[in-house]
Amino acid sequence: MINNLWIHPALILISGAILMPLVPKALKKTYLLIVPILTFATVFSMQGLNGNYGIVSFLDTPLIFGRVDSLSMVFAYIMSLMCIIGTIYGLNVEEDCQHMAAWLYAAGSLGVILCGDYLVLFIFWELMAFASVFLVWFRRTPQALSSGYRYLIVHTAGGMALLAGLVLRYQATGGDLSFGPVGVDAPSLSTYLIMIGFLLNAAAPPLHAWLPDAYSEATFNGAVFLCAFTTKTAVYVLARGFAGMEILIPIGVCMALYGIVYALLQNDARKLLAYDIIAKVGFMVAAVGVGSDLAINGVCALAFAHILYKSLLFMGCGAVLHMTGTCQLSELGGLYRKMPKTLIFTLVGCLSISAFPFFSGFTTKAMIMSAMFEEHKNIYAFLLMAASAGTFLVAGLKLPYFIWFGKEQPGTEPNRKAADPPLNMQIAMAIGAFLSILLGCYTPWLYKMLPFPALAAEYHAYSTYHIFETLQVLGFTGLFFYLFSKMLAPKPGMTIDMDWFYRIIGRSILWFAKKPVQTLDNNVGEGYRTIGLIPLMATARFSSWFDWNIIDGVVDGLARTVRGTGGLVRNFQSGRLQSNIFLSVFVVAVLITIFVFA
Amino acid sequence: MIVNLIDFLRNRLGLIKLVGLAIIILLVAGDWLLVSKEHAHTSMEKIPGFWSIFGLASAVVLVIASKCLEGLGIARREDYYDK
């Protein structure tokens, strides 16, 4: 019975996006609120369900659109919640298309999270890529346009790897497309191809450069959606399929360290946050590699908290960008006078991401660390702890210090334009900040939703040891920042990353196409004209002459003879009866004379 | 209100520095004297103030690593790709 009633939450968002242009302008804002809330309510109503819903038969293969279990529900919950926050944040954006793209993107993410087989997964996977690129393109700067194209090309390549992997898997399993644990004990080529497809979306180096490239060029509200969905959906599919895949531990740790080291060098606030996403997703990927129940709980918990605090930070920096027109740290400073509310909300995000007690990072990241130590991955665990210190340095100190404190730059255009953003943006930030604190203070809210709730209920983040461990790391990182903040002072400029390879290779291909290939093409064209076209034309002219004078001459000559003879004969046929009788009698007389005398 | 509070604190930077220093000292002292290390994951963590040293060392190493990377020539002008 419930199977018939089951509505896919992505369907609500997709229909909402399609119907949006028909909604009258007066009702638009209400509509923008109702559709995501309805989506969230649908997800919320599915809490506690378990099983497969929305099964559609396609070419004798059952396609599962709705696999509802605790792992998919916790992700669907936070994604649909994020869709509400992101839409409220962008409520002052008049363009329908931007909201449509954001909703289709969120729908793609929900589709992937709830799907039960690879075919449905692939469709929604591509929907995500193609919808999200518009959130970059709508910035409408030349940089955003080209960045969007790079984003699309890279994701298409990742999609190809995924598709190749699932085709191979389809053959190897004899037509089984169901999406579940892939069998990490005996990985085959298909396993690795699927993993590469997933890891590209999780932004694992060297397949990560698309993320800072695109997220720093996106619209101010588009980046809020982008920072939440793509990477965390990838974390979900990795947790679903690759739990316990050992190689993910070093990959995740590399992501964490790489992200932090690069974030330290950034001048663009959103690029800094984008590199920090790579670092934080690294924690999740490493925990997927560990694969124990506690680790998977930690993956879900950190993903949940990360979506809230990272979007909060992107909202804060988006507000700075929206109001001042820039996100470059070297052009900002001392904004606390102009944007105090934004500062407070962003600070909550900073404290959460740095895992201060009573904020969301503290109660969630600890699970991953405990799981790493429990499984005796001590070296990796220490490296991740070092990355945690780096996160505080980058996102907890450098970012707020150089935007809101630091050296005030009075008289500059960004400083003059700075002010707290429109109310809807403040409300969205307030919701994000409230939920980040709630997660840190009231753990059962999240812990009950985790895939292993019994294990989570036994977990106590607020042990004296953990509090002192965290505060010491934070305190001494802070001391370092106080002593050496000059070393971290932002400098105008950018850093080159792995995208250098395809941007330079792309440029070389363009140069190759423009210069050598085009020159060759021109030369071949000229050569062909000289040695090919001219003799050909001469031959053609000769053929034409030959045809006209010789062949036609013969044919026409025959025709002319017939015509001449005809004309001659016509002279004899005067039409007069007596002449005809005379001519006939004359001819007959001649014939008789010849016959008689010959 | 928020602005006034921040200005109030900014005018008393010396005091804030002292409070910060006191907190850091208390943390190390607390770790040494108060915290039970029976839940420590490794024996290293039994060193008093281990996580303080670890935090400071991590920050130093990460910043040095980023400076080395910068030294390799990855830092470019804003319009590097537009040329």
H/E element sequence of chain A: HHHEEHHHHHHHHHHHHHHHHHHEHH
Q: What is the molecular shape of chain B?
A: flat
SSE string of chain B: HHHE
Q: Into which percentage range does the β-strand content of chain A fall?
A: under 5%
Describe the 3D structure:
The complex is a heterodimer of chains A (598) and B (83). With 598 residues, chain A is mainly alpha-helical. Chain A starts with a helix and ends with a helix. Chain A has helices spanning 2-5, 9-19, 28-45, 70-89, 96-114, 118-137, 142-172, 189-201, 210-215, 222-241, 248-264, 269-290, 293-324, 340-353, 360-374, 378-404, 413-417, 423-441, 444-447, 453-458, 464-484, 499-572, 577-597, and strands at residues 51-58, 61-68, 494-495. Among the domains of chain A are: 243-490, no CATH class; 498-533. Chain A has 23 helices and three strands. The mean pLDDT of chain A is 91. Chain B contains three helices and one strand. Chain B is an all-alpha fold and 83 residues long. The model of chain B has no long low-confidence stretch (mean pLDDT 89). Chain B has one domain. Chain B has helices spanning 2-10, 13-33, 50-74; one strand spanning 75-76. The chains are: A mainly alpha (598), B mainly alpha (83). The interface between A and B is large, with 51 and 46 residues. Strand 3 (494-495) of chain A pairs antiparallel with strand 1 (75-76) of chain B, so a sheet runs across the interface.
